[in-house]
Amino acid sequence: MADMIKQTEIRPLKCLVVDDEPVAVKGIVAYIEKLDFLETASTCSSALEAAEVLKKEEIDLMFLDINMPYLSGLEFLESLDKAPMTILTTAYSEYALEGYRLNVVDYLLKPISFQRFFQAAMKAREIFKSQVLLKKNKEDASTDDMYVRQGDSFKRIAWEDILYVEGMQNYLKLYFKDETLVIHQTMSSLEEILPKDAFFRIHRSFLVNISRIDTITGGRIFIHGKELPVSRPKKEELLKTVVYKNLISK
Questions:
Q1: 54 near 80, Cβ under 8 Å?
Q2: Are the C-beta atoms of 43 and 21 separated by less than 8 Å?
Q3: Which domain holds residue 179?
Q4: Considering the entire predicted model, what is its pTM?
Q5: Which residues 6+ apart lie within 8 Å of 151 measured at CB?
Q6: What is the CATH number of the domain that holds 99?
Q7: Distance, CA of 246 to CA of 102 (rounded, Å)
Q8: 66 to each of 22, 86, 235, how far by Cα in Å?
Q9: What is the mean pLDDT of residues 68-97?
Q10: For the purposes of burial, counting CB atoms within 10 Å of the CB of 240, is it exposed (0-12), middle (13-18) or buried (19 or more)?
Q11: What is the tens place of the pLDDT at every residue in 27-48?
Q12: Number of domains into which the chain is organized
């Protein structure tokens, strides 16, 4: 475990900077160069260029400007099936709530001070460490146990004991019968790690353990007395998945 953590800290996050203002790109690249846990992999002046980069390169962290021609940063982010960790940058504060709806790591208001940049970068670093830990769990999995980072320590859990997961901005809440754990992680990366036949994404903000569902009614489900919303596009797929799982278990 200690060796893996050490490797995670050494490996810099590969960054993509997307902004149609050359001065803004230059400023972010200069900040990246000040931190040994970040490195600039590529820069782009539009979302369309960024889409091509993401097809060809492995990007860990994207600094994405919201206000760009043709395709805004928010539109671009929403169009991605699998987006890297993203820090939004903009001169307009009214987009902050929309950005957090998309589970971005942070939201930087221009002009960006190095202090705020550093805070956002540290958040991304913690999420990255958690992602590596979860991937390591999956690679080494010989049991149903996995480790999640809790501050400076690691807690062993069994994924089958998770009732459901709730996305909260740039972190997740893992709900169990008797406790709730908070981890720095994105929903999409956790979804990749957990068994696909056991967990279902009922909503942008909720991932549930299918075997823990007590009731499905209308556009809602109940787990351990908690009511959770099911998005309209997911309702039919959820019913089919639950029915299929029940048939297989029999």
A1: yes
A2: no
A3: 143-249
A4: 0.64
A5: none
A6: 3.40.50.2300
A7: 33
A8: 15, 11, 32
A9: 85
A10: exposed
A11: 999 999 999 999 999 999 999 9
A12: 2
